[in-house]
Structure formats: C-alpha cells, structure tokens
Design a protein that fits this description.
Length: about 150
C-alpha cells in the first residue's frame, strides 16, 4: 500500500514540475508565446485570452497537486488539460501544415517534433489517469497517508 502512495507522490511531483516549468517559460517569453498562439489557425482569434489563461491554469493545477485536500482536483485538471493539449497537437499534426505553425510550448518542449510532443503528452495523460486511479483506490479503502489528503 505504501508503494501506491509513493507512486502517487511521484506522479504529482512530475506533473507539478511539468506545469511550473511550462508556465514559467511561457511567462518569461510572453511576447513570443502570445505571437506564436496568434499564428495558430485554431487559437489565433483567442490568442490574447489563451496566452494568459494557459500559464495561469498550469500554475493553479500545480498548487492543487501539492495541497493534499485538493490533490484529486489537481489530478483531474491535469488529465483534462493534458488531454486538450494532446487533442490540439493531434489536430495540428493531421489537419494543418506544420511548417506554418510554431510550437508555443516554450523551453526544451519547444525543441520536440510534433509526434514526439504527442507521445510526451500521452505519457502525462497516462500518468494523470494512473494518479486518479491510485488516489481513488486510497480513498475507497480509506488508505490515507499524511501527504495524500
């Protein structure tokens, strides 16, 4: 049972690192991030709002994941956000000429190819889903450790 708790904490930690890293990179290069969003055929018209929304929601999710009482909310939000990012990338990869669309992810994530980015995102989708399953199991069986809430 303790192994599941460790797994849950590792999953949450990796998601926190991902979201804080991504949000920080977007905010430090905000002008470029907003410009790249503006070039997206799917998000261009909403780039002003999306440019603020994405890093803000990433930071909020990171906080939810570290507060034991809100860990489940953070895991569900992680699953939803990473799924949306993955769907967006799938659409870009399959229906939009990629040479026309810059990656607006920032940092080292910006260096990934589109397919690699989809696999990267799918990895985190699976991690979030696994975290939800482990957290639900612990709640159901009343196996609550001090760090899981």
């Amino acid at each position: 049972m303790k192994t599941k708790n460790i797994l849950l904490e590792i999953i949450c930690l990796l998601l926190v690192v991902l979201f804080v890293y991504a949000a920080t990179n977007k905010m430090f290069d905000f002008v470029n991030f907003k410009r790249q969003l503006g070039e997206s055929p799917l998000l261009g018209d909403f780039s002003n709002v999306v440019a603020w929304f994405i890093p803000t929601i990433e930071i909020i999710i990171a906080f939810l994941l570290v507060i034991p009482k809100f860990k489940a909310w953070g895991l569900y939000a992680s699953l939803i956000l990473m799924s949306l990012f993955t769907i967006y990338l799938f659409i870009i990869l399959n229906f939009v000429p990629r040479e026309d669309i810059p990656c607006s992810c920032g940092g080292i994530l910006n260096k990934m190819g589109w397919k690699a980015h989809i696999y990267f995102n799918l990895f985190f989708v699976i991690m979030a889903a696994t975290g939800i399953k482990v957290h639900s199991y612990q709640k159901k069986h009343k196996i609550i450790y001090p760090t899981t809430g």
